[in-house]
Amino acid sequence: MRHAARPTLGILGGMGPLATADFYRRLVQRTPAGSDQAHLPVLMWADPAVPDRTAALLGEGPSPVPALVEGARWLQRAGVSCIAVPCNTAHAYVEQLSRATGVEVLDMIRAALEAAARRAPGLERVGVLATRGTRLTGLYERAGAGLGLAVVQVPDPVQKEYVDAAIRAVKRGGDPAGPEQWIAEAAGTLKEQGAQAVVAACTEIPLISGAASRVLPLVDSTDALAEAAVARLWKPTAPVRTGVRSG
Amino acid sequence: MRHAARPTLGILGGMGPLATADFYRRLVQRTPAGSDQAHLPVLMWADPAVPDRTAALLGEGPSPVPALVEGARWLQRAGVSCIAVPCNTAHAYVEQLSRATGVEVLDMIRAALEAAARRAPGLERVGVLATRGTRLTGLYERAGAGLGLAVVQVPDPVQKEYVDAAIRAVKRGGDPAGPEQWIAEAAGTLKEQGAQAVVAACTEIPLISGAASRVLPLVDSTDALAEAAVARLWKPTAPVRTGVRSG
């Protein structure tokens, strides 16, 4: 690719792989391109063996930082303009990645909260459905404070029995009906605490958030990151070559 | 990634981008992994500006070969074990890519026909829904001959008014209801010619093949490529680290 002329998005993915595939699909769908050729060039590094982020943040597993830095450096050397990391929990490490590479890493957390504020005008209290790792980092609380938003989390037993269990179920594959209902229950506990909207703040959750979106206005962190990438990199171009053809 | 220890799949994609995202999703879904960490590592080069393959094959546009070779070399240097090209028409060039890089390129055409033979036992005549470029290359006819299968194509007016139009519509985005019906009509003309099964032989078609699959047993070339990649690279591994966690 001619990077100088064409901004290229780097995707540091694989956490998990299905969420990464979902992110790439949403990126394509949200790009207002009229032909294949007008879409963003993408380079993707997806190593599902990056150590579990939540386990590391809980002090129960190895750090994912060496693997993430390896991936980010690889994208940097390939000449990407900026990097999207479609994993909320991994945002605990994005400042390190940005420092290690000098490449901008898009802020999925801020993008998701800004999308929630657009979705629910007058928003003051926003619920977050996230991994225990993301909760521990306080990423949403800090970003919310910067935007004047109070962030509400689910009670601990709900985290464990509904949210954690649902995320695990998606990563494992299988019937999504049960997990979808658990996420709706969890959204109900956020509503009881006064949340006016909810952020699906783990990239597995949008895959099972249909029922929850009938409980509260729901914003999808994967979508928000895709929109941020398009806003950052995509520009309309003149039609290229012979126009849209097939194959 | 530790390539020596862990076979890595290279995806040479972007033709089109939505089909590439669909391929990656199917790859993940067809991998019998019990956790994120057990999935295949993937490196993806997706440059949607690769010149249109059909236009090149019709002599109406520039060759996609230089761009494809650039992408394949880049994947080779990154150490991938083999390359998947989720675009049927681009298979006109895969021998060149393989020679230029020394890296195995998975054969989507053969994989799709073999999947059709498994899907319809006793298969002798198989219909193919493809771009004009793929038809021109005779890729399916040659691979079919090697497997003892007669390949049937739709009549020219059906190609132009239904198949080409439907593929264009998917690449453009928008309501898929019309294109899905056109593909079903095209499948009907294959059935009239004695086809006992049909291959959705353009990676855009599986996105709109629901109605056609009620006309004839339908095999999806994207799925067949995903299955070929899993069969070629994936091996069960011992559970890693602390098991499946979240985020």
Which features characterize this protein?
homodimer; 247 residues; alpha/beta; Rossmann fold; 2 domains; 4-stranded parallel β-sheet; 10 helices; 8 strands; 45% helix; 12% strand; disordered C terminus
What is the CATH level 1 assignment of the largest domain in chain A?
A: Alpha Beta
Oligomer: homodimer
Q: Structural class of the secondary structure composition of chain A? A: alpha/beta
Query: Which residues of chain A sit in consecutive blocks of at least 5 with pLDDT less than 50?
Result: 239-247
- Largest sheet entry of chain A: 4 strands, parallel
Determine the most extensive contact between two protein chains.
Answer: A-B, 70 and 70 residues
The count of strands of chain A amounts to 8
Strand content of chain A: 5-15%
Spatial order of the strands in the main sheet of chain A?
Answer: 2-1-3-4
Tally of separate domains of chain A: 2
Helix content of chain A: 40-55%
* Separate helix tally of chain A: 10
Alpha carbon gap, first and last residue of chain A: 20 Å
Q: Which sequence of SSEs, written as H and E, runs from N to C of chain A?
A: EHEHHEHEHEHHEHHEEH
Task: Say what the CATH topology of the largest domain in chain A is.
Answer: Rossmann fold
Radius of gyration of chain A: 18 Å
In CATH terms, what is the architecture of the largest domain in chain A? 3-Layer(aba) Sandwich
The outline of chain A comes out as globular
Mean pLDDT of chain A: 91
Tell me what the structure shows.
The structure is a homodimer of 247-residue chains. With 247 residues, chain A is of the alpha/beta class. Chain A folds into 2 domains: 9-107 and 226-233, Rossmann fold (3-Layer(aba) Sandwich), CATH 3.40.50; 108-222, 3-Layer(aba) Sandwich (Rossmann fold), CATH 3.40.50.1860. Chain A has helices at residues 17-29, 53-57, 65-77, 94-101, 108-119, 132-137, 139-146, 156-172, 177-192, 221-233; strands at 9-13, 42-46, 82-84, 104-105, 125-129, 150-152, 197-200, 218-220. A 4-stranded parallel beta sheet of chain A has the order 2-1-3-4, sandwiched between helices. Chain A has a 4-stranded parallel beta sheet with strand order 6-5-7-8, with helices on both faces. In chain A, helix 5 crosses helix 10 (221-233). The longest helix of chain A is centred in the middle third of the chain and has 17 residues, at 156-172. The interface between A and B is large, with 70 and 70 residues.
